[in-house]
Prior knowledge:
The structure holds 2 protein chains of 2 kinds. By secondary structure, chain A is mainly α. Chain A has one helix at 2-34. In chain B, α1 packs antiparallel against α7. The longest helix of chain B is centred in the last third of the chain and has 37 residues, at 178-214.
Amino acid sequence: MVGNAVVMGVSLLVWGLLFYYLVRLERRVSELEKK
Amino acid sequence: MVLRGSLLLWIAGWMVAAFLWAPLVPVLGETTRVLYFHIPVAWVTVFALAWSMVHSLLYLRRRNMEHDHHAMAAAEIGLLFCVAATVSGSLWAKAMWGSYWNWDPRETSIFFLLLVYAAYLALRGAIDQDERRARLSAVYSATAFVAVPFLMFVVPRIYFTLHPDPLINPRGKIDMDPRIRVVFFALLAGFTALYFWILSVRVRVARLERRSQEA
Lengths: 35, 215
């Protein structure tokens, strides 16, 4: 049970970081395009 | 936007299929599902680093900053996927071998790869002048890639490893259940497309940053 929670937590963290990176890039693009 | 949404749906849909439709590999049991994430992510790592090396060589030949943007973006994304491969591999190792980290040849290799490409980004961050940064980092990236096939494919074959055999076995065949194969290749294609999406956005950022510096 603890193992499942660890796997789920780490998977969500990895996906979360990947999407955070993408969202940050998209935000940077719109900032630079405004300039 | 539609393409991006479709890609996310594609990955999510095949992930669900991995849980509900594809059978389990008897030796791996429930951990079979890690295969659909771990191998595509490791594949994207090697592909991205090769992309970075090719564009570094192109930069050295043509001195076009567009190649530098591609080399930098690919190395950055390769490093990101390398972290994901390390984390997923570590979780798999815990389930199969009883420990998150065993200093197995594969684990040691990926650890060195992380260090080599983290140093590439550190090198880029330490140089202010565009042309100089592009030239030095192109030489570094082209040279660093020599270590990739060695660390990923040679070292694990020389030393004893707990890691399973490569996907394509020594007879040149892929031993997989047909349903596992369908899900696996669908996700491999999905993750490769995800790589190109992130690459396009990262290259666009680099291009815009350069233009704003010049303005």
